[in-house]
Protein 1
Amino acid sequence: MAKLALRDIRKTYHAEEIIKGVSLDIEDGEFVVFVGPSGCGKSTLLRMIAGLEEISAGDLLIDGARMNDVEPAKRGLAMVFQSYALYPHMNVYQNMEFGLKLAGMPEAERRRKITEVATTLQLDAYLKHKPGQLSGGQRQRVAIGRAIVRNPKVFLFDEPLSNLDAALRGQMRVELATLHRRLGATTIYVTHDQIEAMTMADKIVVLQKGVVEQVGSPLELYHHPRNLFVARFIGSPPMNFLSVRIVGSGPDGLTVETSQGARIDVPVLAESAVAGSDLTLGVRPEHIVIDAQGTVPGTIRLVERLGALTLLHVALEDGSVLIVQTDGDHGGQVDAPVRLTLLSENCHLFDAKGMALTKLMRHRLAG
Amino acid sequence: METTLSPPKGKKGRTGAALFLSPAVLILLVWSLIPLALTLWYSFQNYNLVDPTLSGFAGLDNYRYLLTDPDFVWALLNTVLLVLGVLVISVGGGVLLAVLYDQDFLGRGIARILVISPFFVMPTVSALVWKNLMLHPIYGVYSAMMRAVGLTPIDWLQHYPMQTVMMIVAWEWLPFAVLILLTAVQSLDHEQKEAARMDGAGPVARFRYIILPHLSRAITVVIMIETIYLLTIFAEIWVTTSGGPGVASTNLAFLIYARALLQFDVGGASAGGVIAIVIANVIAAFLVRAVARNLEA
């Protein structure tokens, strides 16, 4: 069990900074997910923690001890790779045994540990199989087993589910979450899949271009994104954005006006907002309702029926398109005119720099 | 016409396939079976190019003379020595160089070209270069180097003929091994090496448990291809030592040449050829089986 601390961690490749000063605290037993678009540095950051990449500047502390120059194997970590990285010429048993053998663990103890882990992962029938004879899900389990037998303080996962098909991914997600609850080990998990991030994480770290954009619980990121990037990145279908202008402010928030003249009162702290200045209004698809009295008129351009719910792509008069989520029985047809109401208490406002204005009310689940 | 797109089925398809294969099979027959048949035929004949009085069926005489000839035993030993020696040097050195050249270092591209280049020099030329430019007791570079440190130059080809030929052939074949093994090393998933590092494997353990098993397939391929060529090494011997002194550097291929074109004993040479064919096939059968097993795994 371990606490991790990253202090202004930086990575420079050929004079180009890839990781631009990341500071982060990871509590004991926490499941932390690094998420971000490809090239954001999330994998690099994980590999720096693992010791596979050198840390150019800053400190990595595990349980208070500086680990920058400690060999990967001596950091007390275990990693599950995207390609699983099983040793193809060794069978499942030998794959799990390799690290223990190198660590000099006696034969009997190795056998006991591997058998125990193999049983919990339902791999006991496959111990004599080579990785090539296993299915993707089984290989994934072997890779996890190889990590577990070493009894690490911290588990590192580098996009472990991205090579699996959708159904198996869902199943492995549940298994991983269950496993984490049982082992209670500190876990760092890298993914670009926001569903994995939202469902498994205690804490999500959103990265972009080597910078931490926001750290928080899944619902905190969902309901209180700190800036436009996080707002855009978290949530599927993504948040809609409209440019608006401030027309008034008061203790209950700001009143903004869309380019078509629809007025919305958004409950945010007015702070330095000046009447007449331009802002970006963000609203999630589920926070727009079809309403005959709605203030925003538009035309349905596309209907996506997902069964349980329907997504309407509504074009406004200025050409911008809003995605609206309604129930699965909604009878909207393409080219039909609709009127929309934006649920103002769920709207977000972002200033010219893309930073969110603080909301007056915290979401009750956002912590 | 759409039937032409479907895979051949039944008897009709097979006749078509046989028809298309026939030119290749025919060439193979003409080029390999006819010489083989002729060699077999001559090996049972009394046939000497400078003695027309000798003729007629010889029975097993050619084989008897050859197998009881101490030169033949030498030639056989030298062949084995040459094959094994060059294999050990080229595969051993090849694995080490491949791992070395897989590392990132300044000028790696040029270094790789340099290490591969001996393979593109034809055997006669490289043998001549080694004989006259490098190892010559008077003009050779090595002799100059030895003199420079006060040592007496060695006439390598005179005193260590077989070892020197082996070294020259190994110099030619090492690049081939490096080429094949380097691509194999590069094809190793880097996450596997990293996983081994996370498991606590140092450089030696990574080489022993990850890289070497990964290379086993490529090593078998190198051994197989090299063995087939090394059994028939001729040009290097002919250019450097002509099999001498005595028969000290005569291998089977050179012995057959000497029998046929220096002693003009076509019958005896053909018997040697037949024995060489048998040996090559036995070795090839073993190798192919070994490779097949390795490729399956």
Protein 2
Amino acid sequence: MKDKIKIGLEIHVPLNTRTKLFCNCKNSEEGKPNQNVCEICLGMPGAKPRLNKEAFDKSVILALALNCKINEKIIFSRKTYFYPDLPKNFQITQYENPVGISGFLGIKNKKITITRLQLEEDPGRLQHKADYSLVDYNRSGVPLVEIVTSPDFENSEQVIEFIQKMISILDYLNIYNRHAGFRVDVNISVGGGNRVEIKNISGTKPIQKAINFEIIRQKIKLKKGEKVEQQTMHFDNETGKTFLSRKKETEEDYGYIYEPDLSQIELDKKEIERLKKRIPELPFQRLERLINEYSLTESEAHVIILEKSTADLFESLSKEIDKNILKNWIAVTLRKVLNYNNLKLSETKITKEKVKELISLQESKKITPRVAELVLREMVSNDDSIEKIISRLGLSKMENRDVENLVTSVLKENKLAVEDYRNGKEKALQFLVGQVVMKTKGRANAIKVKEEILEKLKKIN
Amino acid sequence: MSLEILREAEEINQGYGTFVTLIGTLQKGTPIVVKDNICTQGIKTTAGSKILSTYIPTFDATVIKKLKEKGFFVLGKTTQDAFGFGSFSTNSAYGIPKNPVDKTRVCGGSSGGTASFISLSKNVNYGLGQSTGGSITCPSAFCGVVGLTPTYGLVSRYGLIDYANSFDRIGPITKTVKQAAELLTIISGIDEKDQTTYDKSEDYTKYLGKGIKGMKACYIKETFSEGVEREVRDSVLSAITELKKKGLQVEEISFADLKEMVPIYYIIAMAEASTNLAKFCGMRYGLESSPENKYYSDYFKELRMEFGEEEKRRILVGTFIRMEGYRDAYYTRALKLKNQVTNQFKKIFKMYDLIIMPSMPIVPPKFEDVKKMSPAQNYMTDFLTIPAALTGLPSISVPVRKKGLPVGIQIVADHFNEGKLITVGDAYER
């Protein structure tokens, strides 16, 4: 018990609504600073907020998907603090009556309690210069969902699993503005000591690094017999260290009152049912189903369901393409290309029809797997036909004679390697194959090339 | 005609200090004067506070938009207590408006400039006031004009600079009940920009010229007793006699906790006000100073010293009320009591169409006497207007005295029953 670690999270998720939470400004940080602003999100005297129905519905849908109880009365509150990025010097958020309470999300062998889920507005963005700061209010009023968990996590691995699961759910619900990125506040206490809050970390890697660093920092303090103070910290991704925040946020009194400009919301059962219907099969449900229905291994299924669009692709093509080829293709090739580009399938120009065509070209040996992958990379941002892409990249199939000629020249250029091979070094043969394949830009099949090389070497003998 | 309007307005302003901004150019249409906390596009809007001395809104309040569509033009923006914080218009950063009957006396607040000007002008009949705790009724009674405070949610607050959003209401201040009915017809109605509005607007002129026979009213005993000046009581009671003659049934009831509503109201009002005033920090609009070599919190602190005394008082008290450890005892409890009081009034309206009481417990006091009042005494003068303010009920104040210092009769109706107020007010005037 002495080293018992407790970690709790506050996750801030920007929603992908068309407009901001309380005004008609575009919910987008693209364009010039302070371009998507109006009297409401600038907090001009006289302006009043009006709730964006789309944002509200999306927050309820997420609460339902996370097994939350929807509050009978949902009320917005004012949280007062002075900061230059906050136009009204109060934030419209939720306090006593958030959208959802008492939900949960399961991870491996553990159920993480979600204490509350609330809808609130994002402040603007500060940019600090040498001796002055700039404020961009394009982000001011962007709808955020804040998800607060109990301190149920015991290590950073559980946290990362939870966050990845959460991202996947957000993707399935299609409510998350992925490009804006989520931000996480992490609360950590070791051995029943004081709680330290690390604010505003984004990205799974930094979150993991920050947690691991902070656990060690606290453990060392405890070992020395020192006390861990309750404080707010920040994480520097460059140095990989947490550092003390200038503002003593834990001591602040926000003086919450109800937001009198927004009437309270009472959702009836019918409305809740209507919103429930908008929840599709969720990733963990789909995982189970795919494993059973298509006899996939858990890890294959896991990669395929990661994104709703890849799982949809798998299921719709599974009737037309051999399942074993398809699952490899989607879980390995496609995943690799998407990760490389940091894009979701739905954000690319890749279509179901083209994937089908590409796989069948590969299966009928008209192109090599390597060429298929190169073409797929092109397809991400280009909607030319596959034929056109192949010819543009100079990847059309090689005639046997061309391969023969290439082999001849590679053998000539690499006499040393040829010598090595003859002296029994198998690796030299691999090297020669590699050289040829490289020169064909992957168009030639490596096995064929190998046969050809062996043939040639025999002949030279 | 138009030149004459400008000349007269200029003259009244010089004698009585009714305007923060007087538009000096000729315009077409019907003139209206507007309290300076209602946003007017391109016209400076200060809410009576120094901190907003340079604020020029980029948009019109919904009521202004509606009035412009009906051929009105804004003649001027009128003086008021800063942010509506006051009952006598003496907390103004732009000159203190005077009583039209006696310049040594106050004209009431916080919509003082509008009421004083409407009373004095021969040419202008329409004014917009705004009430949080009685700021339409009070100056209307003190200046001898008609003031109508509509049900909370009947008129859009979009473009109104907030005092306490739960109570703030925009309403007509006019010479006659008929003009008030006309104005209310134009400015009322649901507004997508103010989510607390309702689709309850009517043509209120249809309630004019109707008999009041069969209508049932009550007056609250306690509103004619302790703390109410004799000449006020006598004037209002004789007005009630006149109404009875015209056919109104009137009974006496008792409402013991009336004065308890004052602290309930002020707790909620100040809690909200202190958050509303947080935004004024010298960034983006309004008063600014040099940020050179200052950390942002020092800059904010320094600039906020420019608030007037009453503004500072309400920010401090309002912030205290919201603090952890005090919030439940004051703010949360006041909200509960507010609902209780509202239910009490709803019960009364099951039996009566109207509640009658004096508009203010006193005749307009002299400036020198107001100076001697403590803040608590000052707040207590609102005890007759606060019941309707706290509960969002509509009320009308109609002048009941032809000579001497003005006195008003206050008539309160159930939510969205403005029609009854107009019928009775109009019947009294005839």
